[in-house]
Amino acid sequence: MAKTIFRCLSVFCLVAVVGLAHGAERVLKVGVIHHSPPMSYLEASGALTGFNVEIMRELCKEMAARCETVVLTLDRVVDALADGEVDFAAVSLLVTPERRARILLTKPYYRSISVWFARPGIKPGEARVAVVKGSIQARYAQAHAWPIQPFDNHEAIFGALSAGRAEAALLPMANAVALRQDPRTLAQGLSSTVVQYPELAGDAALGVNPRDRALLDKLNEAIDEIKRDGRFDRINTRFIPFRLQ
Amino acid sequence: MTTPAKPADAHRTWRAGRVLLALTCVFAVIAVGGVGWLAVDLYAVGVAAGRLQGETVPWTIERQRLGRNLEQLRLEGQRVLTAPSPAGRQDALFLVHMLSAQPGMADDPRTAGLAVEVERFLQKVESPATPADMRAWEALSSRLRLMADDLSVEGGKRMSRELVRMSGEMEQASYKLLFNLALMAGFMAAFLVVVRRYLIRPLQRIRQVLSALDARGPEPAFPPEPMAEIRAVEDAIVRFHATLRENDEVRLRLERLATTDGLTGLFNRHHFMGLAADEMARAARYGRPITVGIADLDHFKQVNDTLGHAAGDHVLQTFARLLGDTLRQTDRVCRYGGEEFAFVFPETTPDEALLLGERLRARLLESPPVLADGRRLAVTFSLGLADASGCGLEDSLARADLGLYEAKRAGRNRTVVTRRPDGL
Question: What's the rounded Cα separation, in Å, for the pair B91 and B120?
């Protein structure tokens, strides 16, 4: 009898210890994209960094979770989340009804606008516009029957513009700032205009696995916390020359 | 057994259980009401704290971010005007466009208007800027700084207002808590007073009455109590006392019947023999003198025969009363049978008893029995005495009897002391 009780207690302790260890540090798969400065890109040393990457690291710290990155391209982010390939994605997704129908989205952590870059004199719809595949800008251009020049990432667009392989581009605000500061494109004398189409502006959120509502709640709490304690602003200052709001 | 009179039931009574239940219900209702009253404020404090955490703090942070962007707009504007190269000017102007188009900037009409004004001004100004342009920019720059200052303190002001309101609600809640505690303390005190006044005190009084309850004492009296259970116990005690008194009276009556003669009220022979034996034993133990005697009314049969038994009974009763009036308290006497009476005179020698007998004879002469028709009967008695010191009771009485016969034979109405055979 005593032996049985001892065995039961041992098993219980083992399960409890394993459970606690598991609860203390959950392993999360986080989707990231490369070559999208200043949000997510590789430094010269090869280390992944950027506004969204550093925000992701602080969120994981806040949730006491160990996060493992899974590299995606923007056009695969929503599918990877919907399929459960990743738990959440450190990618700014403009909130749209279509995305909300397929995946969970955190509370907005900033609001974005879009910027039109082009050689002087070229207006939207008049020339092929460079867009990142899967972006809201690509969808908008297609919806308005603009000729598009799809790219896998923003750096590819920067390269095409600086090399003269592209004449115009439609980019999210943060990427537009990075493009404007890129010395390769400065020489091209590109003009920039903030576009006022409501479909290209609005709340930016993180995407979450649609079957993991608990993770969504934790992420929302963590976003509130890093905004309250100043970590969000410090990362903002490192990567973007003004406050995201 | 008589039924004791019920205590006056002028006062209405209440069952203690129901009273306590009612008091408890009242207390519960008041306590729940008080807690609910307090909970309203606590809920308001919780809501205010939640609002502070969930709305005001984020709003304050957003205000500060907006202020920071205004400051950034001012710096970029300054750079537009002072940039050494067209590229630098274009770069700064791009950021001015970006900042002006920020959704956060457009939310507040004050910042939206100012940002548009700044954007238009900077777009319009040619490079290099003229002194007039710079003066106009200084004015705009100053407005941007002041607006940034205003925004950065707005959050603090709102938080301060909410904290004042929250602390007011907390203060109100603390007063309510104190009031509730005082109310509960007051109710507990009132509860204890009620229990003490209407249960404990009456129980203490009942205990006192029970410990002093005596069948020959007065009937226990209780003030009217409102508690039905207490009243029931008190009524039972009153009935119990009445029963005790009744039983005591019966016992006394039976004892009297068992020890006295019904006609004369004197001890009967059986009881007398017991008392006499005790006196004899006491006298023997302490070596004290003691005398016994037997008296017989003279010619009593003639009284019965000529005047009737009622007259005879009257004579016996008169003689018995005379005995009670004349003899000492320590002397014992009984109706020995018919018209015979037996005596024990403790601490008395036969000679002293002889004097007592003569005093009795004189009293009978002075106060003879008087019949209903007024006739005075000349009644005498003969008395035989014997010294009983150191002798047995039966033996002493037998010698007194001999004395009585001697007195009868010598002509009646006299006393004869029979000496002991040893001549004492």
Answer: 16
CB spacing of B103 vs A201 below 8 angstroms: yes
User: Which chain A residue has the Cα nearest residue B61?
Assistant: A228
Whether A182 contacts chain B with CB within 8 A: no
Q: How many residues does chain A have?
A: 245
Domains present along chain A, CATH in parentheses: 15-111+202-239 (3.40.190.10), 114-200 (3.40.190.10)
CA nearest neighbour of B117 among B63, B148, B77: B77
Shortest Cα distance from B86 to chain A (angstroms)?
11
For residue A92, the distance in angstroms to the closest alpha carbon of chain B comes to 16
Best CA proximity match to A106, nearest among A204, A240, A8: A204
How does residue B137 score in pLDDT terms, banded at 50, 70 and 90? Answer: very high
CB contact under 8 A, B65 and A233: yes
Q: What is the pLDDT of residues B23-81, one digit of tens each?
A: 889 889 988 998 898 899 889 889 999 999 889 999 999 999 999 999 999 999 999 99
CATH architecture assignment, domain B260-418: 2-Layer Sandwich (3.30)
Q: Which residues of B touch A201 (CB under 8 A)?
A: 103
Query: Which residues does residue B413 pair with via DSSP β-bridges, in sequence order?
Result: none
CATH of domain B18-187: 1.20.120
> Is B104 in contact with A243 (Cβ distance < 8 A)?
yes
